[in-house]
Amino acid sequence: MVPEVDVRDVLAELQRLRARVPLLAGALAASTDGLVLAHDTPGVEAEGVAALTAAALGVAIRMTDATGRGGFRELVVRGENGYIATYAAGSAAVLTLLAEDRINVGRLHLEGRRAGVRIGELVDAALAHSARPAPPTTRAPSAGTDRSGTLPQRPT
User: In this structure, which of 14, 68, 136, 142 has its CB flanked by the most CB atoms within 10 Å?
Assistant: First the structure.
């Protein structure tokens, strides 16, 4: 599971991506287990797309493993009305883009890969930060502690 990420930074990246690529209909960053980190997906249920992305990611990872193609990088699905492209975003997240059928697919890949790297850096930095132990705090004992420094036991 991904720790608390500064959603504003991830959302800002999604919005910059949509501004650079006008035929994007939506952008979503999610954890690899299907939890929405941030989204800019007007008219689309972000939680459902994130859950489906996690399911598709599981199949894609199994396919790359089974065929000896290495680690997952991206998955593209083309429907009658456009594309759904999912890109790896660091070690614990993915970027899913919804694009209109008229999009330049090369541009979609270029911008999607770049944004995936930036979002991955944000998520991986949050993971690294959460893995570090919190620095010890020193405080005077409160009124509820005995002078040995141990806290009283809470009733269970």
Answer: 14
> 82-89 and 74-79: which strand pairing?
antiparallel
Long-range contacts of 77-85 (CB under 8 A, 24+ apart): 82/25, 83/108, 85/109, 85/112
Kindly list the distances between the CA atom of residue 152 and the CA atoms of 59, 137, 138, 141, in Å, as whole numbers in the listed order: 50, 18, 18, 11
- Classify the C-alpha dihedral 121-27-83-67 as positive or negative: positive
Helix (H, G, I), strand (E, B) or coil at 143: coil
- Annotate 7-54 with three-state secondary structure: HHHHHHHHHHHHHHCCCEEEEEEEECCCCEEEEECCCCCHHHHHHHHH
Residues of the chain with pLDDT under 70: 1-5, 132-156
Neighbours of 50 (CB within 10 A): 22
**pTM of the predicted structure, to 2 decimals:** 0.80
**DSSP annotation of 114:** H
- Per-residue tokens: 155: 């009733």
